[in-house]
Amino acid sequence: MRAQFVVSEIGVGLRRNLTMTFAVIVSVALSLALFGGSLLMSDQVNNMKGYWYDKVNVSVFLCNKSDAESDPNCAKGAVTEDQKKQIMSDLDEMAVVEKVTYESQDEAYKHYKEQFGDSPLASSLTPDQMQESYRIKLKDPEKYQVIATAFDGRDGVQSVQDQKGILDNLFGLLNGMNWAARAVMALMLVVALMLIVNTVRVSAFSRRRETGIMRLVGASGFYIQAPFIMEAAVAGLIGGGVACGFLVIARYFIIDHGLALSEKLNLINFIGWDAVLTKLPLILATSLLMPALAAFFALRKYLKV
């Protein structure tokens, strides 16, 4: 009988404050959707880091005849065969190096034409203007500085370039966007909590006569508070369910279908459904506990039971 009373009171409370209940559901849904989205964004960035850092190369570009005339790093002339042999020998002896690939001027020219064949500059270039290079695969991409220290400024070396630096800029941008989403999420959570507290207080005020009678007949504090706490929990749980729906729909239409980014951006290793599904229980648990706790602490002061 008591459980039936609590359930009936929950229904009454939700219907009495329908507008505020709807506002709570929407604010909880948006804030938790942003929360889940930020978690998935973190997973995506980490996934991309693991995928791309494993493919990072360090490139040691060698001086050619054109560089000898225009580049201060190549003031001593184009690289010689002895210098190339010495560079290769030193690379073979370095413990941080996993694999070394030599790219000739003809190969560099061919790759350039494949990637930038439509560029106006491509028609004016010749193979002898391209640079020979060593493409170095490191055992640990973080050890780039070892290569840079060993070869930067050496005779015959025009420059040492690390692809990881380019990726770091990209991941820095993605992380910045993720933190911006978390800031908006935090603001939405504050708004949701304020709405929950106000909704509970309005509901308690509208039923102050019933709670007064219950207090006089000896009802326990928890028994009086339970309907209000459950109202907030139910509204929050509905919002959490909507947030989960947002994430599932977003994953389906943005990555798999609709925009189909997984097909259009083959170079990006997108997170799978397992990453999404593991976040849903956390979102539902948060949507249930957050409003319930907010209502509990609000009622302790307001009802004084």
TrEMBL record:
<feature type="transmembrane region" description="Helical">
    <location>
        <begin position="221"/>
        <end position="254"/>
    </location>
</feature>
<dbReference type="GO" id="GO:0051301">
    <property type="term" value="P:cell division"/>
</dbReference>
<feature type="domain" description="FtsX extracellular">
    <location>
        <begin position="56"/>
        <end position="160"/>
    </location>
</feature>
<comment type="function">
    <text>Part of the ABC transporter FtsEX involved in cellular division.</text>
</comment>
<feature type="transmembrane region" description="Helical">
    <location>
        <begin position="280"/>
        <end position="299"/>
    </location>
</feature>
<keyword id="KW-0812">Transmembrane</keyword>
<keyword id="KW-1133">Transmembrane helix</keyword>
<dbReference type="Pfam" id="PF02687">
    <property type="entry name" value="FtsX"/>
</dbReference>
<feature type="domain" description="ABC3 transporter permease C-terminal">
    <location>
        <begin position="183"/>
        <end position="301"/>
    </location>
</feature>
<protein>
    <recommendedName>
        <fullName>Cell division protein FtsX</fullName>
    </recommendedName>
</protein>
<dbReference type="InterPro" id="IPR004513">
    <property type="entry name" value="FtsX"/>
</dbReference>
<dbReference type="InterPro" id="IPR047929">
    <property type="entry name" value="FtsX_actino"/>
</dbReference>
<dbReference type="Pfam" id="PF18075">
    <property type="entry name" value="FtsX_ECD"/>
</dbReference>
<dbReference type="GO" id="GO:0005886">
    <property type="term" value="C:plasma membrane"/>
</dbReference>
<feature type="transmembrane region" description="Helical">
    <location>
        <begin position="179"/>
        <end position="200"/>
    </location>
</feature>
<comment type="similarity">
    <text>Belongs to the ABC-4 integral membrane protein family. FtsX subfamily.</text>
</comment>
<keyword id="KW-0131">Cell cycle</keyword>
<keyword id="KW-0472">Membrane</keyword>
<dbReference type="InterPro" id="IPR003838">
    <property type="entry name" value="ABC3_permease_C"/>
</dbReference>
<keyword id="KW-1003">Cell membrane</keyword>
<feature type="transmembrane region" description="Helical">
    <location>
        <begin position="21"/>
        <end position="41"/>
    </location>
</feature>
<keyword id="KW-0132">Cell division</keyword>
<comment type="subunit">
    <text>Forms a membrane-associated complex with FtsE.</text>
</comment>
<dbReference type="InterPro" id="IPR040690">
    <property type="entry name" value="FtsX_ECD"/>
</dbReference>
